[in-house]
Each structure stands twice: as structure tokens, then as C-alpha cells.
Amino acid sequence: MQIYGYVRVSSADQNEERQLLALHERGLTDRQIYMDKQSGKDFNRPQYKRLVKRLHPGDLLYILSIDRLGRNYIEIQNQWRILTKEKGIDICVLDMPLLDTRQGKDLMGTFIADLVLQILSFVAQSERENIRHRQAQGIAAAKARGVHFGRPERPVPENFADIVRRWETGELTVEEAIDHCAVSESTFYRRLREYRMIKK
User: Fold this and answer.
1) Under a CB-based contact definition with an 8 Å cutoff, are residues 92 and 61 in contact?
2) Is position 10 annotated as part of the catalytic site?
3) How far apart are the first and last CA of the chain?
4) DSSP H or E stretch at residue 132
5) Which of 118, 64, 122, 74 has its CA nearest to residue 95?
6) In this predicted model, what pLDDT tens digit does every residue of 72-126 receive, in sequence order?
7) CA 120 and chain centroid, separation
8) Full DSSP string of 157-197
9) Pick among 3.40.50.20, 3.40.50.10490, 3.40.50.1390, 3.30.980.10: CATH of 3-125
10) pLDDT digits (tens, 9 = 90+) for 14-69
């Protein structure tokens, strides 16, 4: 029997130390632990795929909590079935003792584990949707306050008026005018509209 651990954080700036510490306390070394820094919306993750290929019947997989496995209700249950039924491994979810497939392999134990899994995977997906909803609300509120997202626009040069005049008189082509301004074509035309409105 081989023992493995799986760690997932949603982004590169999140801290995985709590998960690693929990796995190290179970005696796992870093070589036994697979880690992805990626969203839990699906299972298309490089380290998770590598881990699944290594698994053989009788192996044991530790994860700290079910939402570290994933946050999609249907896919969590599908992966659980693949791991426990098709791969024939045991899974131990450290913060939920009822989700330890080594225990209660009789009908009642299996029923309880399946029920807990359904509840927790539902909660994981609900939390993901709540996070997305809160983010959307936060972005909308910030935009209402005048906060701009994305890269700041490159300013037009101080001699923009002269460049426009030379373009309008045919001294410069539009491509040359855009090159002189060192901005994108869409920014050039937007600033041109703003400039003409100010002139009015």
C-alpha cells in the first residue's frame, strides 16, 4: 500500500501551509504529496492527474477537507466514485472523520459516508457560487464608485493636438498618427473623439 496526500489552493498567492502541516503530521513526506495551485471548479489539474495515474488498488489518499478536492458538486462525487470504486483506493478526509473509507465498510457505514459526501460536496459548490456572487457584487459596487479595473490606459502625448492637425491635413497617415501617439488604434480614436468634443 502506498500513501499519498493531495493539496490544492485556488491561486498562487494563497498559503498551502495548513494543508501541508496536516499531511506531515500523518507522516507524509513532500515526495508523497501532490499540490495544485488552481481553481477547484473542475479536475483538469496537472498534479491531480499525475496523482490519479500513480494510484493502485489498496493505496490511501489523504486530503484535509473535501473542498480541497474540488468545489463542483457533481464532479466531486464522480471523482470520489472513480477513486474508490474504479481505482479501488481508500480516502481519508482529515477534518471529517466520517469520510474515511477505511472505516465502516458495511452497508450502514457506506450509506453514512455517501450521505456526508453529498452534503459536503453540495456545501463546497454553494460556497464557490457564493464567493463568485460576492465578487460580482464587490466589482459592481467598486465600478459605481468610479473604480477602474484593468491596466491604466496609456496617455496620449502632449503634442496630440499637433498630431491630429497633421493627420487631418494629410501630412500623416492614420497609421503614422497612431505610431506617433504610441497607443492602440481604439485608444487613438477614443481620445480623438474626446479631443473633438473638448474643441466644440
Assistant:
1) yes
2) yes
3) 80
4) helix 107-144
5) 64
6) 778 888 888 889 888 999 999 998 887 888 886 666 656 666 777 777 777 767 7
7) 19
8) PTTHHHHHHHHHTTSS-HHHHHHHHTS-HHHHHHHHHHHHH
9) 3.40.50.1390
10) 788 999 999 999 999 999 999 998 877 778 899 999 999 999 999 999 999 888 88
**What residue type is assigned to position 134 of the chain?**
R
d(CA 13, CA 23): 20
Is the pTM above the cut of 0.70?
no
Burial environment of residue 96 by CB neighbours within 10 A (0 to 12, 13 to 18, 19 or more) = middle
**Domain spans in the chain, listed from the N-terminal domain onward:** 3-125, 160-199
Identified catalytic residue from 10, 39, 65, 121 = 10
For residue 74, the one-letter residue type is I
Question: How much is the CA Rg of the chain, to the nearest whole Å?
Answer: 27
CA 188, CA 172: separation in Å to the nearest integer? 14
CB neighbourhood size of 69 (10 A): 25
